[in-house]
Amino acid sequence: MTRAEQLEFCKVCLNQKFNPNLGIVCGLTDQPADFQVECADFKPDEEKQRAVEIGRAIQQIEDQEVRGENKGNLIYGVLLFIASIVIWVMSDGGVYAYGAFLTGLALIFSGGLNKG
Fold this sequence. Notes:
This protein has helices at 3-10, 46-67, 72-90, 98-114; strands at residues 16-19, 23-26. The chain has two domains: 3-67, no CATH class; 72-114. The protein is mainly alpha-helical. It is rod-shaped and about 75 Å long.
């Protein structure tokens, strides 16, 4: 197991400790991780695990934006916006199209902002 793979465990372990010379080390041994499959002393810190999961989710969204996978928001937003106007006109200005109208605008602006 590589150091990077070990750190995936260590970053969310209650036993972790930071050493300015070595980085994250085990708080029980004051040494870098040396396990190959799993650490017998691993104690997950749920709060740190959630923070890591949120960070991964944000990174995944940012990666999608860089690759242009979110460009569909703009297209769907424009279509929903147009559809909401048609529904609004057909319903004689009723409130039925209000949610679609706002959702369409949100998708248009989020699609436009994602373009950077």
